[in-house]
Amino acid sequence: MLALDNIGKTYPNGVHALDGIELRVDLGEIVAVLGGSGCGKSTLLRLIAGLDRPDPGRVTLDGTDMNGPHEKIGVVFQEPRLLPWLSVAQNVGFGLRGKRLAERRRLIEDALQRVGLADKADVWPRELSGGQAQRVSIARALVTRPEVLLLDEPFSALDAFTRIDLQDHLLHVWAQTHPRPTLIVVTHDIDEAIVLADRIVIMRPHPGRVQAEIAVDLDRP
Ligand code: ADP
Ligand code: ADP
User: Hey, which family's this protein in (predicted)?
Assistant: First the structure.
C-alpha cells in the first residue's frame, strides 16, 4: 500500500503548494487526481516519485520511506521526454544500466511488447507518432516492473483519437500485468478521470488540499 501522511510542501519562494494531504492507495488501484491548474497535482506526484521532499509529512510504500527515486515507482510525464540520440530500445532500457545484457534485453522486449510496440525497438524517437512516443515512455516507466505508476497529464498533449487509443492501451497494460500495478493519474479532465479511475481525488488550491474523494463504480473484467 502507498501511504501519504500529512503531506505538505512550501516552495523556497513561499508558495504553499500542498497542505495536510492524507491518502491511502491499495496495490492495483487506479486513482485519478483531478483539479485545476495550480492545485498542486504535479507537486504531489513529484513528492510520491521521490523527485522532491515533502515538508512536513512522509510517503511510504509497503511501510518503507520513499525518500528518493525508487525502481518500485515509475513516472510518465506529459511529454514523452525520450532521448533523441538513443533508439527506442535504448530509451526504454535507460534505467536498467547495471543489469546484465541478456536480462536487460528481456525486460526491454517485455515492456515494448506490453505497449504493443515490439516492432519499434530499433527505430529513433523522431520516427514515432505522438501516441507511439508516449507508449514508449510508458514502456520505459514499466520496465523495472514498478508497483506504482505515476502519470502526470499523460494524454493532454495528444489529439482526441490518440488520447482514447492510449487510454485503452494503458488499461490493457494494467489488466495484463500481474500483480496489477497501482496507477495514479493526474488530470484536469473529468471525463478522463471517470474513464480510467476506480477513485477520483479532487483537489482545490491555495494551498493544495484534498477537497473530496469519489468512488467510481466501474465494471472491469
Ligand atoms: P498543478 O500541477 O495542479 O497545476 P503544481 O503542483 O504545478 O500544480 O503547482 C502548485 C503551486 O505551486 C502553484 O502555485 C505553482 O505556481 C507552485 N509551484 C510549482 N512548482 C514550483 C516550484 N518549483 N517553485 C515554486 N513554486 C512552484
Ligand atoms: P500521428 O499523426 O497520429 O501522430 P503520424 O502521422 O505522425 O501519426 O504517424 C503515423 C505512422 O507513420 C506511425 O506509424 C509512425 O510510426 C509513422 N511515421 C511517422 N513519421 C515517420 C517518419 N519520419 N519515418 C517513419 N515513419 C514515420
Answer: Belongs to the ABC transporter superfamily.
CA distance 10 to 16: 4
- As a whole number of angstroms, the distance between CA 88 and CA 73 comes to 21
Q: Mind listing the pLDDT tens digit for each residue in 154-202?
A: 999 899 999 999 999 999 999 999 999 999 999 999 999 999 999 999 9
- Tell me which residue has cell 477520483: 200
* 41 contacts: CB under 8 Å, gap ≥ 6: 33, 35, 152, 186, 188, 203, 208
Report d(CA 154, CA 79) in Å as an integer.
7
Ligand 1 pocket test target in 43, 151, 152, 206 with most atoms within 8 Å of CB: 43
* Angle, CA of 4, 14 and 48, to the nearest 5°: 20
Dist. CA 178 → ligand 2 center (Å): 31
Q: What would the pLDDT profile of 143-161 be if each residue is shown by its tens digit? A: 999 999 999 999 998 999 9
The pTM of this model reads: 0.87
Ligand 1 atom 27 nearest Cα: 11
| 69 pLDDT higher than 90 | no
Looking up cell 463504480, which residue turns up? 217
- The answer to whether the peptide bond before residue 179 is cis (omega within 30 degrees of 0) is yes
Q: Whose CA is nearest to atom 14 of ligand 1?
A: 38
Distance 151 CA to ligand 1 centre (A): 16
Q: Is 17 in the pocket of ligand 1 (CB under 6 A)?
A: yes
